[in-house]
Every structure is written in structure tokens, then in C-alpha cells.
Amino acid sequence: MIDEQSFLSLAVRFKAVFLDSYGVIKNYNGLINGAQDTIDFLRKKGIAIRILTNDASRSQEQQAESFSKLGLKGIELHEIVTSGMMAKQFLQDKILSGKIGYLGTENSAHYILQSGLEHISVSDIDLLSIDDISAFVFLDDEGFDWNVDINKTVNLLRRKNIPVIVANSDKLYPVSKNDVAVATGGIAKLVENMLNKKFIHFGKPDSQMFMYAFDELNQFGSFSKNEILMVGDNLNTDILGGNKFGVKTTLVLSGNTSAKDAELQIHASGIIPDFVCPSIMC
Ligand SMILES: [Mg+2]
To answer: What's the 226 CA to ligand 1 centre distance in angstroms?
Structure first.
């Protein structure tokens, strides 16, 4: 049996807490019970908070706005780190000419493409004239024709060897108590497997977000890795990422990993959290 413990009594042993968002602070119903009380408690104890989310569909500003709409008060902009921010930075630093092709919605994740270069939806790309396409981004799981545009993406990436960026590596996301939907990382994985190529994935478990949050945090004091606790509901992203980066990890059972499956999943995956808590509530 897994030894579950109280989150609050665990958290006070750390100087900073990295929280995943979906399944930890919020879910398809809105805020998770007690999220505000826990955030307030951590603040009162002087524990720094950063939110590390693989949701690339909203910018930092839009994330902050969405927390506030859900009723979660007092989250500062700099406390939010998204996989989209990392993808955007990469495009800005590395892709300096040509056009960026993308699969996704015109609006939701568009901030990622604001690097100054022209961008073009895969549905508008003419496969006979792709000389100027210099990178491709898997942006979002909506806003395109799954049959036509995914096939077109496969053909574009067969013909042209360019950096391919996956803004959110999550393969699935929960849409209700029992159901999931295919996320952009799932589509990217499919194309990657078919083409035998390696795309550039942003988001947990990759280390960029952890590194960014760690560096940003250390502008506010001196934090070593063993003084930081990563809290997440997903073994393959949150816990694996935290373990690889070298911070302590807590699996919460309020989202992706249910109490009845946790032990089996930990055993089967070999991804072992340092702690397990029912939720961040108490
Ligand atoms: Mg999650």
C-alpha cells in the first residue's frame, strides 16, 4: 500500500513548491477544492509558488486571467510557466527567416508564433511551394480538419526537413470524469512515429520548464533543488520531469492518477514519486 500523507505538513518542509495546474489546482469542474486555502497557506508560510503547466493554448497573461476567473486570487504573472513560453522562446532565438507553418487554432495558441516571422496554417500551405517554410509547430488540437490537415502535415514533413516544435507534449487531456480527448502531443507523436523523425518537445517531462522556473525563482533568493517540491497528478510528465531535474516530487491523486491505480502505475512505469498525497487540499 502507498503511504499517503498530508500535503500541507509535507509542503512546510520546502522553500518552494512547483505546482502543475490541471488535476492539481483545477480540473474540468473548475478549481479543485481547497486550492485557494492551500495557496494562501503556502504564502503565509513564506513558501514560494510557481505553476508549471503543459497547457500551451494560453499565454502567461491568459493563464493568469483564467485562474482569476475561476476564483483563484493572487497568482502573479511571473509565477506561471507554460510550455508555450518555452516554444515561443525557441522560435524567437533559433528560427530567424522564412515562414513558420503550424497545425492548430488561429486564436488560442497564436501568441507562440509572435516571433516577428510570418506564419501560415497548414490548411493554407501549398505543398508545391514550400521552399520558404523554415519550421513547423504543433500548436493545438483544434482549428483544423483532422483528416485533410494531418495528412498534409505528414506530406509536408516528408518532403521538407525542418525543425518541428511540439508546444505541448501531452498526448491526452481529461474532458470529464471518465473521458479524455487527443491533445496536440498525441497527434505529434503519431506523425513522429510514422515519419521516424524526432521533433522538439516542450513541456514536462523535458527540463526546459524546470530550468526556467528554477532560474527565475533564484532571482528572488537562494533556492537549491532539494528545497523544491514538484507537485503533479501525472507520473509521465510532472513526476518524471521533477525526478530528472532533481527536485523532490509528490504525486497527488486528484487528477490523472486515481487512488486505485496509483500503486500499479508507479510499479509499471518505474517512475517513483518521493511522496503521495490525496490532493493539495489538506
Ligand atoms: Mg496535470
So the answer is: 22
133 Cβ contact partners less than 8 Å away, ≥ 6 residues apart = 98, 99, 100, 101, 120, 125, 156, 160, 162
Among residues 201, 219, 237, the one where a domain terminates is: 201
Q: Are residues 208 and 196 in the same domain?
A: no
Q: How many angstroms is it from 1 CA to the middle of ligand 1?
A: 23
The one-character DSSP state at 174 is E
pTM listed for this prediction: 0.89
CA distance 217 to 223: 7
52 sits in which H/E element = strand 48-53
Distance 29 CA to ligand 1 centre (A): 14
Q: Which domain holds residue 39?
A: 7-54+204-277
- CA angle, 249 then 253 then 258, to 5°: 125
177-228: pLDDT as tens digits = 788 899 889 999 999 999 999 999 999 999 999 999 999 999 999 999 999 9
Residues 172 and 92 in one domain: yes
Last residue of a domain, one of 156, 176, 201: 201
Same domain, 196 and 211: no
The C-alpha atoms of residue 215 and residue 223 are separated, in whole angstroms, by 9
Q: How many domains does the chain have?
A: 2
Residue among 220, 223, 272, 228 nearest 246 (CA): 228
- Ligand 1: centre distance to CA 81 (Å): 14
Cα dist from 154 to 50, 51, 70, 144, 146, whole Å: 37, 34, 38, 14, 12
The answer to the question of residue 35 being in a domain is yes
Distance from Cα 115 to the centre of ligand 1, integer Å: 28
